[in-house]
Write a structure and sequence with these properties.
Layout: H1 5-23, H2 30-56, E1 64-66, H3 70-94, H4 99-107, H5 110-134, H6 138-147, H7 151-164, H8 179-203, H9 205-211, H10 214-245, H11 255-258, E2 260-262, H12 263-269, H13 271-280, H14 292-301
Helix pairs in contact: 1-2, 3-5, 3-10, 5-8, 8-10, 12-13
Amino acid sequence: MTEKPEELQERLTREIATELQAELDHPLTEADWARIKEAVKERLRAELARRAAEAAKPKETEEYFVRFSFNVRAQHFVLAVGVLLLIFTGLPIKFHESAWAKYFFHVISLELSRLLHRVGASLLIGVGIWHMLYLLTAEGRREFRELLPRPKDLFDFLQNIKYLLGLSRERPKFGRFSYIEKFDYWAVYWGMVIMIGSGLLLWFHNLALGLFPKYVLDIAREAHSDEALLATLAIVIWHWYNAHFNPSVFPMSTTIFTGKISKKRMIEEHPLEYEQLMASSSPSPSEGEESRGEERAEAEQS
């Protein structure tokens, strides 16, 4: 916070008085205080002039690129709400003998917890169907191709390990999606297959028992429980750290909410995509300006 002029004057007076007292071998006299007063005036005048000059400078607008379309952001929002509901209502069931789980069911009844769990499951199923339909669009097919694992991902992983261990000064250069983001994406695919498949068997257990032996439901229960814990740990430890708790974006990245990424982050995190954009299009759009670059990116994403 910028100091007020009177606060600045008081601080400068203390500093100059301390400096002068250190040079003298006697208490400060009236003449000394007069010198201090003049020195404070000069420094105060210089500091206020510097602040005025800085305030008069035109502020540079940070440049942004469109990274995620509204469709993608909406899918992520529904997925996040559904998964959080499943975690908050599912873990107390898995650890129902613990004290905290008993307190949870004391505050939120078992009936309400089951209802919320099924709401979360419905959101998960719904967004899964939504995403499959999204993959039929031009944008969806393009994004899917970018998310396919490639040999470069393995080399990027090894290079990143070397960089983190101090064995190399060069970080791996990522394109539109790094191997970290690809892992996030495909982990959701695997998790949804296990969770939705086993969850439907448990949800409609009477129908399932008429079609399958009981041991199939026993396997489904164990798979559902263990995969849920694994998914929770992956989200909290892997995804939340890389997306929000990483020191470069802490306390959180807003890209998945706004759909935009700054030019600085684009160059640092996706240099190959940035180079490709610069080679094939006009300069990136700036914040608060409707440029052709942003219009074209929005059109491609929608």
